[in-house]
Amino acid sequence: MKFHPRILAALFCLLPLQDLKAEDLLIRAGTLIDVDAGRVLRDQAISVADGRIVSVQPYRNGLAGGRRELDWTAYTVTPGFMDMHTHLAGDIQNYNIEAYLKATPEQDVLAGAANARKTLRAGFTTVRDVGSYNGFVDVALRDAIAQGWLPGPRMFTAGAYVTIPGGGGEVSGLVDAARIPPRMREGVAKGEAEVRRKTSHVLDRGADWIKMIVTGAVLTDGTNVNQSEYSEAEVRAAVETAGARGHDVTGHAHGAEGIKNTIRGGARSVEHASLIDDEGIALAKKHGTWLVMDIYNGDYIDTVGRRQGWSAESLQKNLDTTQAQRDGFRKAVAAGVNIAYGTDAGVYPHGDNARQFPYMVRYGMTPMQALQSATIQSARLLRREKTLGSIAAGKQADLVALACNPIADIACTAKPVWVMKDGIRYEGATK
């Protein structure tokens, strides 16, 4: 049998994991970023046991107490980074619609294994994966990582897009629905009753979140980013159904009215929020809604997408939304709206997730705020701040060792030397 190169790469990812185990360690950090308090600490001792942080205190001789001491005095140690908008499974960079239609779930999961490894080595120990065209392949990938079968970030998954027929979550609004395999239409729903049914169906299949496509999409031809594809009432139907089972809803929304439908309908977060207006910002602030704004990848689409011949419609919609999104981001930061780090990884190459940090600083955040958005703030969005998101006693031992200080130079986040997840150490992308 002949395997695609991506599948071979994914299979080789499995080999190094067999003997990896969490160690009981005392890690001596030269510099530590305390995102809870927003401060920088020097010469700290991080005690790790059974994959969790036991204590954090100033270093002194004798603290190791028989545990192996790991010398990270040359590094700045941050919590593991968190990306709240990724697409690990499959290959959504492919601009050939026919390739989407032919992609099998097995291929998507195996490609996802390679993507997961790159993401982990880039310092991202937790991601929220917000959907793939082949339904529930992200769930399979999540479970394989959780079982220790392959290296990758901890995943919180959407399972399948809840989208209207021919909407922004379909393979393409220009493809006849009869040609789209049923596995790619698991969440297609119109009207409140059907939205409730499909929300339950997606959760029954193991999803952690519900992802609703509330407006048209930049990269889905035949859809309008300004057009609301779901009403406030339909969003609320999903929110109530998911909430009754202890799950949250996020809404993909570019247009101003769709953003407001998402917020008023009770969604936990808004993805993209490209054309958010002042009223939308005020609503997000009032309701405590999280914004996940992918302000880096517009540049990637306009350069690489143009060079590769992505559709003229998608390229134009990208131009129409990129700067507006960045302007809205700056206003949202100034207004104190909840913002979590999310990049749309998969539109651009996996492993480049840290490229967004400098953009967030350029458009209004301090370096500390940018780091907090990708750590403790993202943990709060997930409702996992008690166990994730900072270097503190009782939390998972998710750490990144950088050979530079991201407070002085935020682009330093792209240079992880070591990455630790659940107390297991991996070589970073710069090793």
Please give the structural blueprint.
Elements: H1 5-13, E1 25-34, E2 39-49, E3 52-58, E4 68-79, E5 81-86, H2 97-102, H3 105-121, E6 124-129, H4 137-146, E7 154-157, E8 161-162, H5 192-204, E9 209-213, H6 232-243, E10 248-253, H7 256-264, E11 269-272, H8 278-287, E12 290-292, H9 297-308, H10 312-335, H11 356-362, H12 367-373, H13 376-381, E13 399-402, E14 416-421, E15 424-427
Parallel strand pairs: 1-4, 5-6, 6-7, 8-9, 9-10, 10-11, 11-12
Antiparallel strand pairs: 1-2, 2-3, 4-13, 13-14, 14-15
Structural description of this entry:
With 431 residues, the chain is an alpha/beta fold. The chain has two domains: 107 residues, Roll (Urease, subunit C, domain 1), CATH 2.30.40.10; 301 residues, Alpha-Beta Barrel (TIM Barrel), CATH 3.20.20.140. It is built from 13 helices and 15 strands. A seven-stranded mixed sheet has the order 3-2-1-4-13-14-15, with no helix packed on it. A five-stranded parallel sheet has the order 8-9-10-11-12. A hairpin with a 2-residue loop joins strand 14 and strand 15. Helix 6 runs parallel beside helix 7, helix 8 packs across helix 10 and helix 11 crosses helix 12. The radius of gyration is 21 Å and the shape is globular.
